[in-house]
Amino acid sequence: MDRERKIDELLDNLVKSGSEIDYLKELKERSIDATKKDVDLTEVLNNIAKEIKEQTESFLSQKNQFGTSLISGISTCIYLPDFSGNGEYKLKLIGGTRNRGMDLKIDEDTMFDTASITKLYTLILLFELESKGLINLNDKVSDINPDFQNLEDFTLNDLVRLCGELRTNGNVAQAKTKEEAYEMLKTLYLTSNTREENKYTDFGAIVISDTIEKVISKHFNKEMKFDEIMRIFLLEPLGLNETEFNPKSDNLSGNGNTLGLVHDPKSRILGGAVGHAGIFTTSDDLARLAKGLYSVNYINKKYLERLGEITFPNSAQSNKGNLGIYVKHPGGYAKTFTPPEFSKGSFSHQGWTGAMAAFDPNNLIHNNILVNAIYQDEDKDKVKADKPAGFGSAFEEYQKQITRNIMLMWVAKQYYNRYCNVKEDIDVVQYIK
Question: Do the Cβ atoms of 191 and 169 come closer than 8 Å?
Fold first, then answer.
């Protein structure tokens, strides 16, 4: 009974942090069962990891009704960082091939095209630059970037919040050259000037990265490109050495080509290093990003809170927060990639390529799922959003399954740390076929 009371305390803390209680009901029984055995924490976590491995193997081998593999490769990471001397836990599950129909295997160093997860990096960088006094989110874009005079009185913060509706004359993704693409981009105008609702778009992040280039170049009196600024102010301070635009490595996946190019057509024609898409990274580096954010030594707490901010709770896109980051939503997985089991203020993002990263800064939980899912077929019934038909629902089910086990890991680790005085770092890497 004493163990049950202690488990109840841990679950109560989850509920107080904002976890949805309905998703925690089965967690109590599983937690009691996991901790009652006469085994150490490592074995408890390894037992849970076995189930996650089976779930990952199932997702990797899954085919749709047309006999098409939903993914060819995967790198899943579960990370429970620690700042109190209780030990960290990291589990990585890696398997499959970098490209469909090829034998090159995914490994720990494989960098994945994260697509729109790039927007998260752009947002963090923007906040960091403001905290250093190098940029002001309340500045009108047209005042600090003369290329975008048609944005009227819109500020950087309006772009961050996805206010209004932005359009260009011409399709940037179909431009023949980088120069032509930028000329189209500079025609960007507002069809709606409202601050009362949001509409997801790539254009805001593209304008933000272009504006960062101009403002920072002017400040330091030398030309600085977005990828260089990102490296100096975010990647290097957090030790993200396996994260970059236009990667030089050929150990790449998730981008749907063997040329090393970003999948997103707008990013590709614009040079591959822009604010909405283009970052390649590894599971390990996403875990390092999570630790950097959670430590609050890198990013100010008010900015960390903005990453999980629900900006327009009553809008049609209430699941989208600043710069389109997915936030908590009452509809759960049907509306967002931020698990309902995570606390208030948690956030996530999934890119067009299928890559997903979720963050719970209050309970110190991180999960990323990097996949090779991009797929082409002349029969359009077999393809949805450049991925095999059925990928979306299968991914959602996989995320649900492993999140339940992530929460079980969290409770078990909290129980052993708090009540059994167990403090140890555990780092597990498992390869699957």
Answer: no
